[in-house]
Design brief:
Chain lengths: ~325, ~350
């Protein structure tokens, strides 16, 4: 059994990423931001990608959407979506693929709404442009869409600044699922929000996911949140995946020292106050080997004694700081 | 990993042991035009005490007034009313118009963004040396200053040779350690830390919290730790105070407060923290009830408190559980006046009724 064959939902993967490498090409040197990463997401599965800033999570999301711009270059590997090769798509195919097949909610998506158009106009745009509906029909659907995320349809006439951050983020999520995509990419969807609002948004996404049955690629650095939402997850470090398994298995039994450090970085809300260590400053892992199976469905990159070094020199280009 | 339970310092009622006391602090910001008489109330009647060598956490959502309180206490903002006492002296009366150097040597701040709080044009040594020079803590000779610089670096867990580094050569965690060393150079009684870890990578956050605890344990520095992260407040702070709409609603020993939150707002916050150990805990009906209780409670769980009668006008404090935990909650009946800041909750209930 290989990594890409393990999936939680159906065995038919919606998205299959194989040996993806992305490089940022500079004049004098280039940096490998994503290094031979493989994973797949099944139908109706929520797959989490965890890691710190700079580890390559967002680069992967942008690669899937084909949003990478110079100097970033896909240096190797393949991305296939429902059997189609994403990397070979023509501009016309891409236009259809984005939003209709795969939609993405960005980190500060709530600030990406156009401030001079009402929410309604912006949603109507999606239906008229991508689905070719009439204006009237689009407006009706826009109302339904807002109701789906529990916003009063009367808000169609509101401008973005008249809504709270949480409502704006929910409106953006509604827009993302407007065309019923089969995959939704969430790149740190709640980082800028307070906990209470965050929990509501996450509950909403779960509910939508159950109702509409799409798959989710969920990117965050918050391990607690990730374990709550995801079926399966992968932990990234310095452009490589160091561990992947069912979310509950990673939570209950993290095997890679980096995963353990990430888990140890979130103090619990219950139980005695136990000293936690996190990752000591300056500890870096280098030459991370390919994953090998440590337990059924649980893949970990083996750690050898010399693979982690406690010194201050950046050993690996693009390593997470 | 050692499984020793971290110590917690019980505050003493002895006034001698008070490092910082805030009494009835209020702050209003004028809104509207030059001739407008309207104002928004960001803080109202905040009473908070930090004992010597005690870490107190202030938690709340964005807009609840946490940072306004920190800015007022640090004298970056002039409070509209109230008193700030250090060593029993009201510093607002002592230095009327701006913070004096004496005040700055008693209280130092560590800011959220270590990328912004260190001048990129200077080496680490410059920041520390300047703190020492301004507050005359560098000793009488260059040798002593040099020794003190190295000591400071060791205290915050950095190599002494990093004194020659520029901020851009350091990681976020290391920069925040430099910012902490700069505050320590002054040998303050109190350090105000406003979200010191929220800009840092997750795996180094715990290291900075551990450093703060170590400073308290070894040097007896008192701290006010301002955060929106309840779990880290529980991890670091001896006592935790919860702020909502510019007023404190609950306060107590951290573990007890988070295990037995008495105010519906605290309950709301606690229930919203993602915790894999109790996954699937989200209950929209319960959520709606709590919102209702926060915004417009008609009953108080502490009705019949023999020590404090309930009141809708006065922010009465009811004691919760064992008096040793110094755990109190504001009477549920009390409602902040209109115009109070921090409407994190008030903005959404209409749209959330449907989920109930």
């Amino acid at each position: 059994m290989t990594v890409s064959q393990v999936s939680f939902g159906s065995h038919e993967p919606v998205l299959d990423v194989k040996n993806l490498s992305v490089k940022y090409i500079g004049d004098t040197r280039s940096t490998t931001a994503v290094d031979r990463v493989s994973f797949s997401i099944g139908t109706g599965e929520v797959f989490g990608l965890a890691g710190e800033s700079g580890c390559g999570k967002s680069t992967i999301a942008n690669s899937i959407m084909r949003l990478l711009k110079d100097p970033a270059k896909i240096a190797g590997g393949s991305i296939s979506f429902g059997g189609k090769d994403v990397l070979a798509m023509s501009p016309d195919e891409l236009r259809r693929f984005r939003w209709q097949d795969v939609a993405m909610v960005f980190q500060s998506a709530m600030n990406s709404l156009n401030p001079v158009l009402t929410i309604g106009e912006q949603i109507v745009d999606i239906f008229t442009t991508h689905a070719g509906h009439s204006r009237k029909e689009s407006l009706r659907r826009a109302g339904e869409l807002l109701e789906l995320v529990r916003i009063d349809p009367a808000r169609l006439k509101s401008y973005p600044h008249q809504l709270s951050g949480g409502m704006r983020q929910r409106a953006v999520i509604a827009m993302a699922v407007a065309l019923k995509p089969s995959l939704l990419i969430l790149d740190e969807p709640t980082t800028a929000l307070d906990v209470v609002v965050q929990q509501e948004i996450m509950a909403q996404i779960k509910e939508l996911q159950r109702e509409l049955g799409f798959s989710v690629l969920f990117i965050t650095h918050d391990m607690s949140l990730m374990v709550e939402l995801s079926h399966r997850m992968a932990v990234m470090y310095g452009g490589r995946i160091v561990e992947t398994a069912k979310a509950q298995d990673v939570y209950a039994n993290p095997r890679h020292p980096y995963t353990q450090a990430l888990m140890g970085a979130f103090p619990p809300l219950t139980g005695p106050r136990i000293p936690l260590t996190g990752l000591p400053d300056g500890v870096k892992f280098r030459n991370i080997p390919d994953l090998s199976q440590a337990a059924p469905g649980h893949f970990v990159a083996p750690v050898s004694a010399d693979a982690s070094a406690a010194d201050d020199t950046a050993i690996m280009e693009g390593a997470a700081r | 990993m050692s499984h020793a339970v971290l110590s917690s310092r019980r505050p003493s009622a002895d006034t001698e042991a008070t490092a910082l006391e805030v009494r009835g602090l209020g702050k209003s910001f004028p809104i509207g035009g030059l001739f407008s008489r309207e104002s928004v109330r960001a803080l109202h009647g905040v009473d908070l005490t930090i004992g010597r060598g005690e870490i107190v956490a202030l938690v709340g959502e964005s807009g609840s007034g946490k940072s306004t309180l920190a800015r007022c206490v640090a004298r970056l903002e002039r409070p509209s009313s109230g008193a700030i006492l250090i060593d029993g002296v009201d510093v607002l009366k002592r230095d009327r118009f701006q913070a004096s150097r004496a005040f700055r040597s008693q209280l130092q701040m560590v800011f959220q963004d270590p990328f912004g709080s260190l001048n990129p044009a200077h080496r680490v040594e410059h920041f520390l040396r300047r703190s020492l020079a301004i507050h005359r803590k560098g000793g009488s000779s260059e040798t002593e200053t040099q020794q003190r610089l190295e000591e400071l670096m060791t205290t915050v867990g950095l190599q002494a040779d990093m004194l020659n580094s520029y901020p851009h050569e350091l990681s976020g965690g290391q920069r925040q350690r430099v910012a902490i060393a700069r505050a320590l150079a002054v040998e303050p009684q109190v350090i105000l830390a406003d979200e010191p870890t929220s800009m840092l990578d997750v795996s180094v956050r715990i290291g900075v919290l551990n450093l703060m605890r170590k400073l308290r344990d070894e040097q007896g520095t008192s701290m006010l730790y301002i955060t929106h992260d309840l779990a880290s407040a529980r991890y670091l702070a001896d006592r935790t105070a919860v702020m909502f709409a510019g007023e404190l609603v609950e306060e107590g020993e951290s573990l007890d407060l988070l295990a037995n939150p008495a105010h519906p707002y605290t309950q709301l916050l606690v229930s919203a923290v993602p915790d894999p150990a109790r996954a699937g805990s989200y209950d929209p009906v319960r959520r709606a009830e709590l919102r209702q209780a926060v915004m417009a409670s008609t009953t108080c769980a502490f009705d019949g408190d023999p020590n404090q009668a309930c009141s809708a006008e006065e922010p009465v404090r009811h004691g919760v559980g064992d008096p040793e935990n110094l755990h109190w909650v504001r009477c549920h009946l009390y409602r902040p006046q209109a115009g109070a800041g921090g409407h994190a909750l008030a903005t959404e209930p209409t749209d959330n009724k449907a989920s109930a």
